[in-house]
Design a protein that fits this description.
mainly beta; 4-stranded mixed sheet; DUF5990; 5-stranded mixed sheet; 2 helices; DUF5990 family protein
């Protein structure tokens, strides 16, 4: 199954002291693949997009997903978007957002599993306080579709 995550409204695009601090700290966001955070995007970019493949299979008439991008146990699978500072010693994570497969409407997930298109998540990457979005991102803050 092909996944596409489309992030918009990155926190360092906005003006003000918090956005300046994020730029000065060289904050980036990436998608977590196993323990590594990859495909880093600066917090001041206009948008962020990640695309990758996951596995999907039916288990007792339910869909389950897996692969190196997927975290969690069966019935509670998710993807991580991880925030961190990029410096001389690499990426130093300080915050993560969880995108839960349980929040994907069943018909949408089934359509992607059956080859109906790309499972796409669209979400803003700035929280209500102007910082990087974190914790579980729930609808309507995230929109899942097949395109």
């Amino acid at each position: 199954m092909h996944i596409r995550i489309e992030g918009h409204d990155l926190p360092a695009q906005r003006g003000g002291a918090q956005a300046d601090a994020l730029r000065l700290a060289n904050v980036h966001v990436g998608v977590q693949r196993q323990r590594a955070v990859v495909e880093l995007v600066p917090a001041w970019d206009s948008s962020a997009t990640w695309e990758f493949e996951i596995t999907s299979r039916e288990v007792d008439e339910l869909l389950d997903v897996g692969g190196p991008w997927v975290h969690g146990r069966p019935g509670a699978r998710f993807l991580y978007l991880s925030w961190g500072n990029v410096g001389d010693f690499g990426f130093d994570m300080f915050r993560r957002a969880k995108l839960m497969f349980g929040d994907v409407p069943t018909a949408v997930l089934r359509s992607a599993h059956e080859g109906g298109g790309v499972l796409t998540a669209s979400l803003g990457l700035t929280d209500e306080l102007g910082g990087p979005v974190c914790a579980r991102v729930r609808p309507p803050a995230i929109e899942w579709s097949v395109r």
